Amino acid sequence: MQMDDYKINLPEAEMPQEWYNIQPDLPRPLPPYLHPATGQPVGPQDLAPIFPMELIQQEVSQERYIPIPDEVQRLYRLWRPTPLRRARRLETALKTPARIYYKDESVSPAGSHKPNTAVAQAYYNKVAGIKRLATETGAGQWGSALALACNFFGLECTVYMVKVSYHQKPYRRSLMHIWGADVYPSPTDRTQAGRAILAKMPDTPGSLGMAISEAVEDAATHPDTNYSLGSVLNHVMLHQTIVGLETQKQLKLAGEKPDVLIGCVGGGSNFAGFCFPFVPEKLKGRELKIIAVEPAACPTLTKGAYTYDFGDTAGLTPLIMMHTLGHSFVPPGIHAGGLRYHGDAPLLCLLVHEKVIEARAYAQNPVFEAARLFAQNEGIVPAPETAHALKAAVDEAVRCRETGEAKVIVLNFSGHGHFDLAAYDAFLEGKLQDIETDPEEMIKKALEDLPRFPK
Ligand SMILES: Cc1ncc(COP(=O)(O)O)c(C=O)c1O
User: Fold this and answer.
1) Facing residues of 413 across strands?
2) pTM for this structure?
């Protein structure tokens, strides 16, 4: 163990060798994915055209622990275990008695938590004999993580990047090109789904839902190609639990027990991976506040309906029981591109619905304000997505200042913002708009498109 005032490092030998699967510990079973044509639960054969069988099995597994393959562990060790840092200078700046820790996933080669599942998914696809992976990306974090992983395993990689992010974040694109991926601004005219969307909305900024439709279609129409998703699905949450499992060991080394866990939510993967290993304790009655943070412009958990919906815009995916703003909802082009998704991970939604996890939403400017405060005190510039978690942590720490409670606040620092500096410039120049999506009209309209069965 190496411990100092600012960080708690876990020795490599202590890196977890199994992922944690929350499914057997849920308060009630997860509703199955449904086939959009029949309304019946989908079986492995329905998913086989776009996913390798190992990942399909992980999707429904009831095993509590699933071994991490040696080759995946070897690649993880390029950057894992990641440090758990104590934000002492931020604590001082906030004059709070709270102790704030952050799990620093920004140290991965792509700069976020995303390679934790990218490497695992590329590995299982490679073993299954697949030649190419197709995917979508919002902010470009996921696309770059998958490009990196495909590069490690000698797979080709095609990335459909949400158009607004393609233009906002050109250097994420460069990163994907360095790692050998092909990148297209979505919607494109390369797929039927893309062409249909462009015909209806030629000036659309794009959305994750649209890009997913394109990547799924690409995979489904090419036998040597599979689809890879960077969030939402159960196997993605599973791979990310390495984050929370390491955090548990590090908190133990520090002699701390968390009172508050915080993460930002786009599709839910960094949040789930970070907090799921702690959920069984909470279900057994331990006092623990778990906060999921989303943008006010895309308030899926706080204002969406909990119902079956498609994971994509064109309606190519199975129906998923989740909080949703409706699959035709196009979130405004805010700078936290990775949080612009109409739905969320079904595992996370079930726990929010059961009130095990609470959700809150923030507008952009207060989020960037918290990010600047963090950068000025801790040095690291957070990704705009991560900054949402920071805003909630700052609010919790300020509450502790008011009540005098010395709570232990732990957040997942999902990524750095080195490729998001244009967003910071916009913030510093006062050009960021605080878009609060009023669900009443917009969401009601999107929800009208929901499939009608079953309730
Ligand atoms: C740094 C960062 N954090 C969070 C997210 C949100 O995704 P998820 O909710 O799956 O962790 C993204 C997505 O691109 C991201 O890049």
Assistant:
1) 104
2) 0.96
